[in-house]
Specification:
15% strand, six-stranded mixed β-sheet, 426 residues, four-stranded parallel β-sheet, 14 strands, homodimer, 16 helices, alpha/beta
């Protein structure tokens, strides 16, 4: 069972029982899950986590859905690799890659969808749905298949082929919308409010539960580092939700006394902005220049986000009106972090740099992240020996068209030694 | 360190020290690794394995390369999922999927290449190479990047785009050969014999070490089932090497006394054909009808394989002259297994069946495997309650063209409720 005591508005603080809503009835602020941390702290332990399954559900005590019966295709517990080759290129001696490209539907979205689908089933929904930039559609369709639920997934019509095929294969109703992601999201928000469609939109009416799944990206890194936190993390951002949840995950572990040498402490009245003083990780956000509304707000020291119309190669980050933008600005500030918009022409070079140094093939979002890391190293924001984790959240096989022309340039030969030698030596 | 005492010819039995050769100087038979099992049995234990890394290197005592310093991008320890939905469709109550599509370069080949690259570095090679049907090229290029070695990978020129891009991204020298895989393999065999190219061809001169990596597919399934073996496994086959090595892995575990309730026993003089009586798993081979030379030999009760010219949608299985064909026939016989050639028109339906029931997107080889499983269930070769594991060895994002036309059929709409409702209800 989940230790959830209800939902609470992040703006006005009003509470209500757990239900499939994401917006406060009173002030239209976003709702978030409230946990019974007193009970959690009695139950949770490193031993209990380490004895759990090799998936996000090992952290079930800290997730807002019932971990006894999850919709589970084995999301999470992905590798954390020491990246000595990439580190050497960038002058970083203590660099790690969190490789989330090897999740079951091949992006980090499996974490959030596994939680949302489980909760949707608890609430009695028979259909799960989403507005997606691609990876989410794949994950919702895959989890629906596993759960025996119907999936209706909405995508912008101009998505990369790998994301369309990678969603369609699981047999959802696939709706291609002639518009931007933000238009797709608006349409889905209207449908979620419409009583004719009693569907669990994972990132709309299920959003409070869904977003919590990304906390596991924080938990896992801490556990894989031996129950300690990195000095820096570099995280790609679209809505900003994952960025805030990694930070939340770090602080939960600290408050619960699960980190090495860190005293437990109370969560205080506002669970979602808790900051344990032992959490000194600097949170660095990466966006692509063609869609960087959060970075722009941070650069201009604005507390609000000005929506943009995306025009970026990194379609999975192309959210012009990011739902968690302002909250991620606060995390950047609270953590002493930064935000950087990667020039569009450095996305493919970031993909190639990671592949050629560490043997990991990431999608365009990962190219953004690696190029942001290179920028941070170059300007000295990350010291040579500081423990740094870069989050690689998606799979390069889904965005092949972004790199194909640049990397596919084979020697073409006949099946003879002479033909090979002419090409190879010539 | 690895517990390898040398190489031995599978045909004439002559032994020689471990070196990068795959063919016997005397009789041209294939060489295989000889282990010092006496020492291994003193060292290895379940506890030691379970305390190891979450990769194939947890079984390092049983691999022929030095596990203290592997070329490692975290191959292996992939999920084993209970497949209740697919089981229900097929009338199987105890069905599991070994999902090897989530390896770091997205196929089981990472297992064999991690071993081969590690051994190649031990032998002092600076270049690793291969003849590939696609997945191997991706894996060799990825591991070379990680190891800081040069990669030269040879592929048939007509491969699927995902495999070409998925190899090229890591920066190898990519050689596209206008010919079949068997022609590519013959060219590479000549190059491996040529002193001008002192390269480690992972599946040619490194083959004895390389092939052993597939034993981990047996070890992991046994460990994940609680140190017991399935009643049946269904395995796709191209060269037949993986098929024989899964069987070898099962028998090694039994002989070493690592399985539940099984007494250890000696390996006897011929390590590679050892069969512990407690190993009763029936080994079922899946090939595609367009390239099924091993199945044909089995069907016709022939001890030799007649090479074929492949014409199959399952390009990763398209080896017309399989190097381990005769050895895999012996495994089928010794295990009381079977071999089945899946009609070409059932490959895509197998991919879809797995995706729609379990949320796992596999490549064409996996479609072959699932359709073979369905055939075995239908004809009663697998009983309803028998513990069955189906090996899914590759990733559907690499063979999108095989399914795209059939599955991508979205509702295309404007970003309005009325446009959605017209399409959805119409």
């Amino acid at each position: 069972m989940a230790f959830v005591s209800g939902l609470k508005c992040r703006e006005c603080g009003r509470e209500q029982p757990a239900s499939p809503v994401n917006v406060c009835d009173f002030c239209f602020g976003p709702m978030e899950v409230v946990y019974d941390y007193a009970t959690i702290s009695e139950v949770v332990s490193r031993d209990r986590i380490e004895a759990g399954p090799l998936s996000i559900w090992r952290y079930g005590d800290l997730l807002p859905a019932d971990s006894d019966n999850p919709v589970d295709i084995m999301a999470g517990y992905t590798p954390l690799l020491k990246a000595d080759n990439l580190g050497k290129r960038l002058g970083l001696n203590n660099l790690y890659i969190k490789n989330d490209s090897v999740n079951p539907s091949f992006s980090f979205k499996d974490r959030v969808v596994s939680v949302a689908a489980t909760k949707a089933r608890e609430f009695g929904f028979e259909t799960i749905s989403c507005a997606s930039t691609g990876n989410l559609a794949c994950s919702v369709a895959a989890h629906a298949a596993r759960a025996g639920m119907r999936a209706v997934v909405f995508i912008p019509a101009d998505l990369e082929r790998g994301k369309v095929v990678g969603a369609a294969i699981y047999g959802p109703t696939l709706v291609a919308v002639d518009g931007t992601y933000d238009q797709v999201n608006r349409l889905c928000s209207e449908l979620a409010d419409n009583d004719d469609y009693r569907w669990a939109f994972v990132n709309i009416n299920m959003r409070p539960y869904y977003a919590e799944g990304s906390k596991t990206l924080g938990y896992e890194v801490a556990e894989q580092l031996g129950w300690r936190l990195p000095d820096h993390v570099v995280v790609p951002s679209a809505s900003g939700a994952m960025f805030t949840k990694i930070w939340k995950g770090f602080n939960e572990l600290a408050c619960l006394g699960l980190l090495d040498g860190v005293e437990a402490s109370s969560f205080g009245p506002d669970q979602n902005t808790v900051h344990h003083p032992a959490v000194t990780t600097q949170m660095h956000m990466a966006q692509a220049e063609g869609c960087s509304p959060i970075v722009s707000a941070w650069d201009n020291d604005e507390a609000r986000i000005t929506p943009v119309r995306p025009d970026s190669l990194a379609k999975s980050l192309a959210i012009g009106n990011p739902a968690d933008g302002i909250y991620s600005l606060r995390v950047i500030n609270n953590s002493g972090g930064s935000a950087y918009a990667v020039p569009e022409d450095q996305i493919v070079s970031g993909i190639r740099l990671l592949a050629e140094t560490e043997g990991i093939f990431t999608e365009t979002a990962g190219g953004v992240t690696v190029s942001a890391l290179a920028h941070l190293a170059e300007k000295g924001a990350i010291g040579p020996d500081e423990l740094t984790v870069v989050y690689i959240t998606g799979n390069g096989l889904k965005t092949q068209e972004a790199v194909e022309d640049e990397v596919v340039n084979p020697l073409t030969i006949k099946p003879t030694i002479s033909s090979f030698e002419a090409a190879f030596n010539g």
